[in-house]
Amino acid sequence: MEIRFLKSPPERISADLFFLAVFQNEGEKEEKTPARLRSGDGGTALDKLLGGTLSAAIREQVFAGEEGSTLTVNTLGKLPAKNIVVVGAGPMGRFRLETLRRIGHAVAQTANRLKAKSAAGVVEPVRLKGLPNNRRFQAFLEGALISRYQFEAFKKKRKGEPHSLQSLTFQFSGNPRPLQDGARTAEAIIGGVERARHLVNTPANFLAPKDLGKAAAELAKKYPAIRCEVFNLERIRKERMHALIAVGQGSENPPVFIHLKYTPPKKAKTRVALVGKGITFDSGGLNIKTREMELMKIDMAGAAAVLGFFEILGRLRPAVAVEGFIASAENMPSGSAYRPSDIIDTRGGKTVEILNTDAEGRLVLADALDYACDRKPAFLIEMSTLTGGSAYAVGELMTPVMGNDKKLIAKLIAAAEQAGEPAWELPLYEDYKKGYAANTPADMKNSGTGYKCSCINGGLFLSEFVRDTAFVHMDIASTAWAEKPLHYHTMIGATGTPVRTLAYFLLDL
Ligand code: BES
Ligand code: ZN
Ligand code: ZN
User: What pLDDT does 127 receive?
Assistant: First the structure.
């Protein structure tokens, strides 16, 4: 996307589409009232130039300015732009970065619908709700860029309309440098989100563990600040990652373990570890899935988030040191598959009795967490499509998070909120440990019995393998994939969650 900044007034900017935003009147309940144009983004001035047609259209159609809603008005040749789109910003009291993302998305969608190649608007030089210009601008662009993603790699003929919008022009009277930085950050973040979405959307016959390894190696080739090591089965054996081997032994596609390392240009204040679940297909194993197996190509979404975030690191080169760890295997039933009742070793030394071969994520993660903790990071963020139960806990619009460090959890949740990927804490309530630690000849079982909280159970199990490292677990089983269009994810499929959360948390650490 070409992005330009100009000082000229809106009526002199030539673009196919002009955009502005209106707030919904506060306190509005049932009866809608028409929203008011504002002077800050050139709304009232443009209305004057158009002889009041803009405000008349808002009045007549009772355009209330609900968040993300749009009203398109033709300028009848009175302006360089053929159309003006008025976008609803919702009530002023509820304005946040996510509002801007949804506005940016509405503008891009309208432009594409009208086949407009260029769009223009005003960046208001005011501090809205304490949000500086560059942050607001970045969020707007994230929204505008996020919907350009299409997954058409497997269509012989492209079906989706190619997006027409190619350039965005902003009228801004101040120094555009901070905005240019905001634009660069938004482009990088959405680039990372797209990488993750693409990996998650790709089916398992095109994405085996070795292909995740290839994707990591590509990143290392593309960005000199990124190093990558992909362990094969022999090396995995040497590393004593017995649980990863057990999960992968039923498949013709051998497991891999990926170690990524990003070194910042300047000395870093913090060293962070990211761990991702990389099950490229989860059939359930011998406890074969009877429901939703066709969704299980997404079981590597945690790994995809790690790779997506490394894309962002490579592009932006922030001053934080990050290592990424991915345990990848394919969970399949076969004559060589691991069985319910098997007792296996883990890298950390604890033994686990397999009660259910479908609770495989926590096994490969046990080894990955143990390996990551050896590197002594300041803290560790682990991401996995771990339990179907996460959907029952907080639904598909929020990611449940758990951890052993209150401050870390609070910071992650705050970043998730800013990023527009809301998260909610669930308790690692110790009494539930009995569910998997009792009645077994091993140190523990891989699935809890007796308690109904499978999402918390998963988090508790993982917490057994992090020693004293500050750690937070994000269960993205219900947020990594949109079953229906969702905000700016107009396409059913991978959302890229939680790549944006990582970016908002770690880029300015
Ligand atoms: N990969 C699944 C979890 C999942 C479910 C991801 C739905 C995405 C969408 C995981 O490996 C699994 O099967 N979990 C079991 C655990 C149980 C056997 C303890 C579950 O959640 O039912
Ligand atoms: Zn499973
Ligand atoms: Zn799984």
Answer: 67
Alpha carbon distance 35, 64 (integer Å): 5
Catalytic residue among 101, 277, 315, 362: 362
For ligand 1, what atom is nearest to the CA of residue 448?
A: 19
Choice from 277, 387, 454 to test ligand 1 binding pocket (greatest atom count within 8 A of CB): 387
Q: What is the sign of the dihedral through the CA atoms of 170, 174, 179 and 180?
A: positive
Q: Which of 64-78 are b and which e, b meaning 16 or more Cβ less than 10 Å from the residue's Cβ?
A: bbebbbbbebebeee
Q: Given its phi and psi angles, is residue 343 left (phi above 0), alpha (psi -120 to 50 degrees) or beta?
A: beta
- Mean pLDDT for 310-319 is 98
Which residues 6+ apart lie within 8 Å of 154 measured at CB? none
Return d(Cα 212, Cα 228) in angstroms, integer: 12
Mean pLDDT of the chain: 96
**Residue 438, both tokens:** 């009792």
pLDDT for position 181: 96
Is 362 among the residues known to form the active site? yes
Neighbours of 349 (CB within 10 A): 10
DSSP string, 213-282: HHHHHHHHHH-TTEEEEEE-HHHHHHTT-HHHHHHHTTSSS--EEEEEEE--SSPPS-EEEEEEEEEEEE
Residues near ligand 1 with C-beta < 6 Å?
Answer: 282, 295, 298-299, 356, 358-361, 385, 387-389, 447, 454, 477
Output the six-digit token pair for 229. 């090591």
CB 298 within 8 A of CB 382: no
Angle at 228 between CA 226 and CA 234, to 5 degrees: 175
